[in-house]
């Protein structure tokens, strides 16, 4: 893949964060956060901000032709778009669509601090275990926010002071910890030392590098984005038109109207394909995994990946999820449930004798984190010595900041009632998981595992062994409940797994800064500003809107009530969550975790020793955990890449594929604005008007 940087910016890493730009970022952070929470509280088709980068860039291009002061550089464009990324969702910088964003992490918190204290079915478990530091323990206020304000009622903010301060500070501290680790160790290691591809970074790099490079000719200025004398730019715009007219029409028909609702498409281009039903695979291959979710832009950008990454998911799927499962069912050592072929990973992936999904989560993912640190030992050594010359970052000060942030993080959870030793242990697990997410994102796509389903297997017995809680479940233990709460708000689906604030996407900001030749300090300061301003605004507005906008049970927030149940079922009310895993002894899970870590290192050393060994450990782990999102996309990308290289040759393929992929992605996402306005006027505003009480 060839992504040449504009000649005009190669000389030095430009400082771009001017006071006016920083002020604009802060305003966009506040406005974007409010818009995000408002839209997601009522939306059915979109997530947050829905005006994509392509439209913003085109507007800036128009203004830039009128006045030089609007001719923003690639770095300025990047910084301008970052607050909108957090307001829109993960796909904003890839296609212009949405996904997890600001709203989603508080949405993991509210089940504990609202439902847990208000819902009669679980209140008897949660009330005494929840300190007023983290939740408003006022029955009157809980009743108001649960059902929404009645005419004449007002909010009493006094019980909320502690919880708003606690959760805002936790959110800020956690995101800053992630940012510091990325900009001191993980970013330099994966971007500059290993030179990982980061396929999801390519659309923004292509768009911003060309849109922010202006060419003066004949007294007029135009950006490279419209320089049609460049073959790559022609290819970009042809691909964009194809993406808009054909690919972009698919989510309009499947998700907005929808003309083809049977497929249940979601998130602008994610299409479930029940191949097991269409082809009745159970008749020949009972138990085998033939369900798939085909993400259009994932398949497009996977054509940028090397062959080993594309071949590995297909091999693992065939060997484990087709051959192994079919043999196991036919020989009788694996149970069979009709229809399991569509969700085999969620059944067999957590069953004895080989719970392959759990093996990938608490074994191989930890192994990927440890492998990254092992490979980064030289980088870590230089960082500890303060030898990051040329990066423009005060490395030693950042290390002191990291230490201080960790102390605050630990103090917060200890004050909430958690066992400090167990929280240190959890912090290590969390950071290793976050580092593994960087590898998943940088090598393949946004499908890292969640940890709330499995890491309690690693946490429960350790805590019991040191006396943090009893060894027998069903116990009223505040340290255990707060520990489980921490696991859920850090590690569930909408939290730091796919949110733009996780380490994987934060590493993308480092990658963009390097590819666009931007000073790292400017981007890091921008992230700090967005987090410090944004999290309190988002959390407080979310609380205000729950009161005034209809109440927890009527708004979208109330559809995400399960985290508190999971926490209760991880040793408090009982030890029952993922019961199939609990049928295996804890020592067996510990053994599998060690074997999973060892598997990563064995594959790594085999790759170092034998050039022909093509198995990629990151792709193995991703496919074992979530095959439906990877095997078909990898197969399609593999075929497309092979045909492309055969037709055009490796050199031309590498030269143009990034521009083809970027054009298709931005074209696909250009129609997202249709879904945005459709949802805004037909769902969001009518619901708000019906529910709102001043």
Mind explaining what this structure looks like?
The protein is mostly helical and 694 residues long. Helices cover 62% and strands 3% of the residues. It has 29 helices and 4 strands. It has helices at residues 19-40, 53-66, 74-88, 106-118, 123-126, 139-147, 161-193, 202-211, 231-247, 249-256, 275-278, 296-302, 307-331, 344-347, 356-375, 377-384, 395-415, 420-443, 455-465, 478-491, 503-515, 520-548, 562-568, 579-582, 586-609, 617-625, 631-648, 650-670, 672-691; strands at residues 214-217, 220-223, 270-274, 291-295. A two-stranded antiparallel ribbon has the order 1-2. Strands 3-4 form a two-stranded antiparallel ribbon. A hairpin with a 2-residue loop joins strand 1 (214-217) and strand 2 (220-223). The protein starts with 18 loop residues before the first helix and ends with a helix. Residues 4-12 have low confidence and may be disordered.
């Amino acid at each position: 893949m060839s992504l040449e940087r504009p000649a005009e910016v190669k000389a030095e890493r430009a400082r771009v964060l001017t006071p006016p730009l920083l002020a604009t970022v802060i305003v966009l952070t506040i406005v974007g956060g409010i818009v995000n929470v408002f839209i997601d509280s009522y939306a059915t088709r979109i997530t947050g901000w829905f005006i994509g980068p392509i439209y913003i860039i085109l507007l800036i291009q128009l203004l830039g032709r009128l006045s030089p002061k609007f001719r923003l550089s690639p770095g300025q464009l990047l910084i301008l778009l970052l607050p909108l990324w957090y307001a829109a969702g993960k796909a904003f910088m890839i296609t212009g669509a949405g996904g997890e964003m600001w709203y989603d992490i508080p949405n993991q918190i509210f089940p504990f601090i609202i439902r847990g204290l208000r819902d009669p079915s679980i209140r008897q478990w949660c009330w005494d275990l929840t300190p007023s530091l983290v939740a408003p323990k006022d029955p009157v206020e809980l009743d108001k926010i649960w059902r929404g304000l009645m005419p004449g009622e007002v909010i009493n903010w006094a019980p909320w002071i502690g919880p708003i301060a606690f959760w805002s500070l936790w959110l800020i501290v956690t995101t800053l910890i992630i940012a510091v680790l990325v900009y001191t160790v993980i970013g330099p290691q994966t971007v500059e030392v290993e030179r990982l591809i980061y396929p999801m970074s390519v659309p923004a790099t292509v768009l911003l590098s060309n849109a922010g490079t202006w060419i003066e000719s004949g007294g007029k200025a135009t950006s490279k984005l419209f320089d049609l004398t460049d073959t790559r730019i022609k290819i970009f715009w042809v691909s964009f038109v194809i993406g808009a007219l054909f690919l972009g029409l698919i989510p309009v028909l499947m998700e907005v109207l929808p003309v083809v609702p049977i497929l249940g498409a979601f998130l602008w281009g994610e299409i479930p394909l029940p191949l097991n039903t269409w082809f009745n695979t159970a008749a020949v291959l009972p138990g085998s995994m033939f369900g798939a979710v085909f993400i259009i832009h994932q398949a497009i950008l996977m054509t940028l990946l090397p062959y080993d990454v594309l071949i590995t998911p297909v091999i693992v799927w065939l060997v484990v999820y087709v051959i192994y499962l079919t043999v196991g069912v036919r020989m009788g050592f694996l149970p069979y449930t009709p229809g399991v072929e569509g969700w085999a990973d969620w059944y067999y992936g957590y069953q004895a004798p080989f719970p392959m999904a759990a093996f990938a989560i608490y074994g191989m993912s930890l192994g990927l984190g440890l492998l990254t640190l092992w490979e980064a030992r030289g980088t870590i050594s230089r960082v500890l010595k303060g030898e990051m010359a040329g990066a423009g970052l005060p490395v030693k000060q950042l290390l002191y900041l990291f230490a201080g942030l960790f102390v605050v993080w630990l103090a917060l959870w200890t004050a909430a009632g958690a066992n400090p030793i167990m929280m240190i242990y959890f912090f290590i697990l969390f950071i290793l998981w976050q580092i593994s997410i960087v590898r998943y994102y940088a090598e393949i796509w946004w499908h890292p595992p969640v940890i709330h389903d499995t890491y309690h297997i690693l946490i429960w017995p350790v805590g019991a062994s040191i006396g943090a809680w009893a060894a027998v479940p069903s116990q009223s233990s505040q340290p255990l409940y707060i520990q489980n709460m921490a696991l859920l708000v850090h590690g569930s689906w909408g939290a730091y797994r796919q949110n733009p604030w996780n380490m994987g996407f934060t590493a993308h900001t480092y990658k963009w800064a390097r590819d666009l030749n931007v000073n790292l300090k400017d981007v890091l300061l921008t992230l700090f500003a967005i987090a410090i301003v944004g999290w309190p605004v988002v959390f407080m507005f979310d609380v205000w809107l729950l009161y005034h906008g209809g109440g927890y049970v009527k708004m979208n927030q109330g559809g995400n009530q399960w985290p508190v149940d999971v926490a209760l079922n991880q040793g408090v009310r009982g030890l029952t969550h993922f019961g199939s895993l609990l049928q295996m002894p804890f020592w067996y899970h510990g053994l599998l975790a060690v074997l999973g870590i060892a598997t990563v290192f064995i594959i790594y050393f085999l790759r170092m020793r034998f050039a022909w060994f093509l198995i990629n450990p990151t792709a193995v782990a991703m496919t074992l955990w979530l095959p439906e999102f990877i095997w078909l996309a990898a197969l399609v990308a593999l075929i497309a890449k092979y045909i492309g290289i055969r037709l055009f040759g490796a050199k031309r393929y590498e030269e143009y594929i990034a521009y083809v992929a970027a054009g298709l992605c931005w074209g696909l996402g250009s129609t997202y604005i249709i879904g945005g306005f459709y949802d805004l006027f037909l769902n969001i505003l009518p619901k708000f008007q019906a529910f709102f009480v001043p």
